[in-house]
Write a structure and sequence with these properties.
The protein has 388 residues and is an alpha/beta fold. It has helices at 83-86, 91-110, 122-126, 130-141, 150-161, 197-202, 231-237, 244-258, 283-292, 300-303, 310-329, 342-355, 368-380, and strands at 5-8, 18-21, 45-50, 54-63, 66-76, 115-120, 145-147, 171-177, 182-188, 220-227, 276-281, 307-308, 361-364.
Length: 388
């Protein structure tokens, strides 16, 4: 794997946004709208998130200040399979992904979707042959796939979670555990009136740095970080450790070491502050929640917005360890498509909760796709401006 090259960003007041990247960056596809093209509030929008492990798409339309999902797609394509060793996307991984993207294209055509953003994240940011892959996607599917930077990925994850933020929350940590990277954003809401806190977070879609002439109360992004470790990449780094419990412990402590430079409020570490809330968005967090609820068939309505304590999460993780690989493989609450990745995700989650224990971790069954949709609809002015 090529060496990491951390670089400072320019988003928060602390000036400590650390990005680990390598490989080419593909510029976003330009907006094809003409100046007189006025959006129809009933028009459909699409958002596609091509990650290290999965290809997922939502098609939705604005409905008041929320969105109504019309169609969706999700498939494990394992685009980043072998990336840790070779630094490249394999031909087999690209072929699987192209097959999934062709299904997405048919759905977009069926629904006659004109407004869309289709993005790729960490695997394509790191792969040395990412440009080759983007060209292949264009030739085979004609889809305008773009690679986004870690800051935008973090912003969109934050925006998607805004409705889950409590009016009582003053310090917010949003955690997005992906397949190839994990984004953390710390937000200070103390200067925002309670009734406007969710709306203030939504406004972050335009950027983490506010404008001096912004007339609205603004959430302050104290710090953010993109760590180039997700459920797939962390698992790959410790694939040679055969003992299940030892591998989990090593993964968790390794990830905690990566958090050393992210300490926006050092005095908050170890405190269960009633004004502090963590919102976790990822398949790991929703799977842990489903296991806690003993859901043998996943139910988004029961999982999205659920609040869990550190103790409840620890009990679930201890249960996973007691099951061992065979038990997890056959556990319907985990699912066949996630059993091999759940322990690396749980290792990340456990490390986070060692540093910032809380009784208010909110589970978000939402993420980059919803953030992309909210941002598009907000920019087009088709969402109501009422409370979320």
């Amino acid at each position: 794997m090529p060496p990491e090259d951390p670089a400072k960003g320019a988003g928060s007041d602390a000036g400590a946004q650390r990005i680990a990247r390598s490989g080419p960056v593909v510029r976003p596809t330009p907006d094809t709208r003409t100046p007189g093209d006025r959006p129809d509030p009933a028009e459909l929008y699409a958002a596609l998130d091509l990650g290290t492990n999965s290809c997922r798409m939502l098609i939705a339309q604005p409905k008041g200040n929320q969105l109504h999902v019309v169609d969706s797609f999700s498939k494990s394509v394992q685009l980043g399979n072998g990336l840790e060793q070779s630094g490249r996307l394999s031909r087999a991984s690209m072929a699987r992904t192209i097959g999934a993207l062709k299904i997405c294209r048919r759905k977009l055509e069926t629904h006659d979707v004109k407004r869309m953003r289709l993005v790729a994240t960490e695997a394509c940011r790191r792969a040395t042959n990412a440009s080759e892959f983007i060209d292949l996607v264009c030739r085979e599917t004609e889809l305008p796939l773009e690679i986004i930077e870690p800051e935008e990925e973090a912003r969109l994850a934050v925006v998607s979670c805004a409705p889950l933020v409590s009016a009582k929350t003053e310090q917010l940590l949003v955690v997005d555990i992906g397949g190839g990277s994990t984004e953390l954003v710390w937000i200070d809401l103390t200067r925002v009136p309670r009734h406007d806190r969710s709306r203030a977070i939504m406004r972050l879609h335009a950027g983490f740095k506010g404008s001096a002439d912004d007339p609205f109360p603004r959430a302050k992004v104290v710090d953010w970080i993109s760590i180039p470790l997700g459920v797939a990449t962390l698992k790959d780094q410790f694939r040679d450790v055969t003992d299940d419990a030892a591998r989990f412990a090593l993964m968790s402590w390794h990830f905690e070491e990566c958090l050393a430079e992210f300490s926006p409020y050092a005095d908050a570490e170890g405190d269960a502050d009633p004004g502090f809330q963590i919102v976790g968005t990822s398949g790991t967090v929703t799977t842990v929640a489903a296991t806690h609820l003993n859901l043998r068939r996943y139910d988004r309505n029961k999982v999205d917005g659920l609040r869990m304590t550190t103790g409840q999460i620890d009990r679930v993780i201890r249960g996973y360890l007691a099951q061992g690989p065979d038990g997890r493989r056959n556990d319907p609450r985990i699912g066949r498509d996630r059993h091999s990745l759940i322990m690396s995700g749980a290792a990340i989650l456990q490390a986070l909760l060692r540093v910032w224990p809380t009784d208010r971790l909110s589970v978000a069954d939402r993420g980059l796709r919803e953030g992309l949709l909210y941002a598009q609809m907000s920019a087009d002015g088709v969402l109501d401006d009422g409370p979320l």
